[in-house]
Amino acid sequence: MKIKLIIIFSIFLILTGCGKKYTITPDSLPLAHVNQEYKQTIKISGGKVIDHYAKLETNIPKELGITIQPVNDLDGYNIIEVKGNPKYKGTFTIHIWAGFYAGGNAEINKTYTLTVQ
Predict the structure, then answer these.
(1) Cα–Cα distance between 39 and 20 in angstroms, integer?
(2) For 46-77, how does the pLDDT look when each residue is reduced to its tens digit (9 = 90+)?
(3) What are the φ/ψ torsions at residue 50 (nearest 5 degrees)?
(4) What DSSP string runs through 65-104?
(5) What structural domains and CATH numbers belong to the chain?
């Protein structure tokens, strides 16, 4: 009986130890204000994002003055910066989807709301 319990516990420990937890922070974006510098970093952690499987979609018009892009080629889509100097008020969305190297079916799928006041 004791050996069965040890085997079951060992299998459980192995299975739970193999699962990775992928996270995206922050939970929400802070308010932006017209004609004031805005900068927010979005970080995806838990594994390396596969760049060609990452999608970054937004309805933010170019003339707003806000850009959304990966910080650099080394970090790819693991670190995304939302920055600029918004020219007018509005509410916009930023949708991020990402898959991971050796992550199986794991993915991040999040929509942010950016409000400019």
Answers:
(1) 29
(2) 888 988 778 999 999 999 999 999 998 777 88
(3) -80, 110
(4) -EEEEES-TTTGGGEEEEEE---S-EEEEEEEEEEBTT-T
(5) 20-116 (2.60.40.1220)
